[in-house]
Amino acid sequence: MTLKWSKDLYVGENMKETLDEVRAQLDKGEVVEGPQLVCLSANSANLFDIIPAKELRLSIYKEYDLKVVGIAADKDEAVELVRQMIEKMYTEGVNASSIFS
User: Fold this and answer.
1) Residue 101 has pLDDT above 70, yes or no
2) Which residues contact 97 (CB under 8 A, 6 or more apart)?
3) Does 4 score more than 70 pLDDT?
4) Please, are residues 29 and 62 in contact by the beta-carbon 8 Å criterion?
């Protein structure tokens, strides 16, 4: 599994101070408790998946490259990031894959 980080990464307020440290840990494959990743969904029926970072060690994720478009300190903050992303898509009339490079 490879984490591909969007250049236009949405970052929750409570993640801003530790973002670089957490990203480095995740890129090394370390287990990180707490953060939630917002990824473009591999399932075409969904737009986004919210994945607890600690679950990245599960075998199901080893098969996929994940495009990370947001990172939050907890589930509530991740849901708020998704709301912001959907609002941007709606107001700009674009789809998720065109927003995140």
Assistant:
1) no
2) 40
3) yes
4) no
What value does the mean pLDDT take over residues 51-76? 92
For residue range 66-85, what is the model confidence (pLDDT) as tens digits? 999 999 999 999 999 999 99
Measured CA to CA, the distance from residue 80 to residue 89 in angstroms comes to 14
Model pLDDT, residue 82: 97
Angle 3-96-13 from CA coordinates, rounded to 5°:
65
SS (H, E, C) the chain: CEEEEEEEEEECHHHCCCHHHHHHHHHCCCCCCCCEEEEECCCCCCCEEEEEHHHHHCHHHHCCEEEEEEEECCHHHHHHHHHHHHHHHHHHCCCHHHHCC
Q: Residue for token digits 């927003």?
A: 99
Q: What are phi and psi of 40, to 5 degrees?
A: -65, 135
